[in-house]
Automatic annotation (TrEMBL):
NCBIfam families: four helix bundle protein. CDD domains: 23S_rRNA_IVP_like. The lineage of its organism: Bacteria, Bacillati, Cyanobacteriota, Cyanophyceae, Nostocales. This is Four helix bundle protein.
Length: 121
C-alpha cells in the first residue's frame, strides 16, 4: 500500500508543525490551564492537519473542499485561542516568535490549496 500523499502537501506540513509547536507549549502549563484552554487549543490545532488529511482521502473534490474549509475554520479557532492565551500571559514573546511565522504562511497556503482543488489536471 502506498503512503498517503497528504504528507507531501506543504500546507499539511505547516499545519502539523503548528500543531506540534502548540502541543510543546501547552503541555508545560499547569493543570487548570491545560484542562481549560490547553485542551481546546490543542484540539483545534490538531483539527487543521486532520481535516486536510481527511479531505485528501475523499473520493471527490467537493468533499475535499468541504474538509479544507473545516480546516480553515479550525485555523481561525486556533488563532483565537492563541490570542486568548497571549492576553492571559500564558505565551511569551519567544513562543509567539516560534509559531507566528507558521501562521503567516499557513493561511494563504490553505486558501491557495482550497482554490487549487478541482483545478488539477
Amino acid at each position: 500500500m502506498r503512503r498517503p500523499d497528504f504528507e507531501e502537501l506543504e500546507v499539511y506540513q505547516l499545519s502539523e508543525k503548528l500543531a506540534n509547536e502548540i502541543w510543546r507549549i501547552a503541555k508545560g502549563w499547569d493543570n487548570f490551564t491545560k484542562d481549560t484552554l490547553g485542551k481546546q487549543i490543542v484540539r483545534s490545532a490538531d483539527s487543521i492537519c486532520a481535516n486536510i488529511a481527511e479531505g485528501r482521502g475523499r473520493y471527490n473534490d467537493q468533499d475535499n473542499r468541504r474538509f479544507v474549509k473545516i480546516a480553515r475554520g479550525s485555523l481561525y479557532e486556533t488563532i483565537s485561542w492563541l490570542r486568548l492565551a497571549y492576553a492571559r500571559q500564558l505565551l511569551t514573546n519567544e513562543h509567539v516568535s516560534r509559531f507566528k511565522p507558521i501562521l503567516d504562511e499557513l493561511l494563504p497556503k490553505l486558501n491557495a490549496y482550497l482554490k487549487a482543488i478541482g483545478n488539477r489536471e
